[in-house]
Amino acid sequence: MKFEVAVLGLISASVLSISPGAVADPLPLSPVWHSQMPDGPDTTTKITEQYARSVARDAYFWAWPMINIYNRRLAFSQSPKVGLMNGVLPFAPINSMAMLSDYVKADQRWVACPNQDVVYGAGVAALEQTPMVLQVPDFGDRFWVYQIVDIRTDSFAQLGAMYGSKPGFYLLVGPDWKGEVPKGITKVFRAKTNTAFIVPRVFLDDTVEDREAIQKEISKIDMYSLGQFDGKIKEHDWRTLPALGSPTAEGGSAETKWVFPETFFKQLPEVMKDAPPLPGEEARYVQIGAVVSAAERDPALMAAMIEEAKKAEADLIDPLLQFRNWGVQLDGHWSTTNNNAAFGADYFTRTAVAKSNILVNAPTETKYFYQDLDANGRRLNGASSYKVTFPKDNTPPVHGFWSLTVYDAQHFFSPNELGCYSLGTKNKTLKIDDDGSLTIYVQPTSPGKDLETNWLPAPAGDFSLYLRAYWPKIEIVDGSWTPPSVRR
């Protein structure tokens, strides 16, 4: 009793000794406090179906772009040799590359929003297996850029005309690589994930002469393992590539399906292992990991999560195909993004871009402007005719090139009598109006023989317009230039 009174007295004296407004010194933490804080959820705890559904829905939206790239990697791993998938798209085994020799054909459905301004290449690197060497030839004054992204679709290397990149050999290495860089390598780029997607783009004028002239330059584009590097340029005539079959079920008029709710949560742990958490994502990783682990032990729980993923695909993902539903809003109902290939923790924009036009360049490389609506907010549709007029000296300000492309409702080319899907820098016969302006006619029928050089044939039904500005000037980068309205 005397001890208790003494302790109370000490406490009272301590409290009374604090002056009004003063803050007492914090009490020291218990020596065992840190050891009592778990790193994540207790995986032996039973969880409710509703909670698992909640985590599944969030994880599905967040990881959708990564699973998309992961399954494209699996598709490339089934390529028997370097060639053209369905005779249309560059297709090569892992850790190698294929190149087109002309514009991409109109009937491909592997990648939404293709362009007919550049010659494309494509390759997938598995950097956990080996570092990869990229060959960069001398392109002279021709615009070029290599898009190099990780499994998150974030860029980790800068190679292109806008960077002043020199011809030579460049090395891509994985996050844990500690080898020796051999002599002859110009620069090393380190990825944050072991999966990398490499897509060269080389500008091509729409002329017979340039189609021939570009072959010598693109013949020196290549990608191969470090073990194959000997300091000598390897050359290919990409016009001779064989046609290969497709390892995927085609999507009809829509993009080939790359994300499947039924297998999503089986693939997710492997993808998360490849893409370590960004700063601040640690809790997300352990939460998702715990729920997926619980579902692996409980088939009913897994079934509920798959069902929720299917709902998320319909409710959250599908609406992102429409450009008007997202993006930075601009005058005239155009929209854009400011952080392509640098998404970081901007999960919404990353997934929106992945759904509508995956594998876009970084903002310093290309600025993209999206349009679903006319000047009055009505949906663009092939039942009407439209004009896009650039005032005198006010076409997109670029160091590289620009183009305006028309896509159908699924963001692909719709065959037309001219075989014309975009107009811009590559076209040398565009007619200028008497006042110095440039008008492009987007409509289902000819605007007249004398104006057909400026005609973008519109497909039947709803369609979208897409303006690309490669190597944009500061007026585009800072937002002071935006595209003109689309007038019906």
List the helices and strands and how they pair.
Layout: H1 2-16, H2 33-36, H3 49-76, E1 83-85, E2 89-91, E3 97-99, E4 118-126, E5 132-136, E6 144-150, E7 159-160, E8 168-173, E9 185-190, E10 195-203, H4 208-218, E11 222-225, E12 243-244, H5 261-274, H6 282-297, H7 299-317, E13 328-329, E14 335-336, H8 347-357, E15 366-371, E16 386-390, E17 398-408, E18 422-424, E19 438-443, E20 455-457, E21 463-472, H9 474-477
Parallel strand pairs: 1-12, 8-9, 19-20
Antiparallel strand pairs: 1-2, 3-4, 4-10, 5-8, 5-11, 6-7, 6-10, 13-14, 14-15, 15-21, 16-19, 17-18, 17-21
Domain DUF1214: 366-473
Organism: Aliirhizobium cellulosilyticum
Signal peptide: 1-24
Structure description:
With 488 residues, this protein is of the alpha+beta class. Among the domains are: 79-244, Domain of unknown function DUF1254 (Immunoglobulin-like); 323-477, Domain of unknown function DUF1214, C-terminal domain (Jelly Rolls, Sandwich), CATH 2.60.120. The chain is built from nine helices and 21 strands. The strands form five sheets. Strands 13-14-15-21-17-18 form a six-stranded antiparallel β-sheet. Strand 1 (83-85) and strand 2 (89-91) form a beta hairpin. Helix 3 (49-76) packs across helix 7 and helix 5 (261-274) packs across helix 6. The N and C termini lie far apart (92 Å).
Defining traits:
488 residues, alpha+beta, Immunoglobulin-like, Jelly Rolls, six-stranded antiparallel sheet, five-stranded antiparallel sheet, 9 helices, 22% strand, globular
